[in-house]
């Protein structure tokens, strides 16, 4: 059997200190998973729990720790915004996972950006339409190399600082311990509505103080113990 059109390129994320790579499958995102960001976006974190949406795997841009990663300012938008996130790479799949199974499903962790066409997202929200136009577009998910899970690293990540600077100025700063739903709870809830697969990626939510960037801006995003990535917005 022969393809009638060229096969789309698959995205792979490097594994730190390894010659192995992680083939990215589906990319799930969690909305409203830090209380202050939930309030910032006009929701009540007590009444409105986090929810899920997705990005296409082609949105992922591997971002090295040691170099600047360039992403293009997206078409059809005049409000391009950053959201720094802790990323979880899934190594084992399943459905209706327990907390213990959820913890066991984690292969490793990374630093990511959920870049958003906020104006298009706002238009979609106002009309009750899906968010894909605001969230799932080319180069909207820069993600660092993956650090393989260990008990020590997992314990550190739970309390880690998470933040983002634009042109050297701190814009977002919080801690992973401020997640409304923990990493394992997110995985459990997600596995109740989707059967998770090895290769899936979960972006676990962003802290408050999201904001816009323009062409020429440099963003530095970090999660303590996982490193930092530098992403530059280009034409």
Automatic annotation (TrEMBL):
Q: Does the keyword Thylakoid apply?
A: no
**Domain Fumarylacetoacetase-like C-terminal residues, every copy:** 27-233
In terms of InterPro entries, this protein maps to: Fumarylacetoacetase-like_C, Fumarylacetoacetase_C_sf
Q: Where does the chain cross the membrane?
A: none
Q: Which organism is it from?
A: Marinomonas profundimaris
Organism classification: Bacteria, Pseudomonadati, Pseudomonadota, Gammaproteobacteria, Oceanospirillales
Q: What is this protein called?
A: Fumarylacetoacetate hydrolase
Q: Which GO molecular-function terms appear in the entry? A: acetylpyruvate hydrolase activity; metal ion binding
Q: Do you know which SUPFAM superfamilies this protein is assigned to?
A: FAH (SSF56529)
Record keywords: Hydrolase, Metal-binding
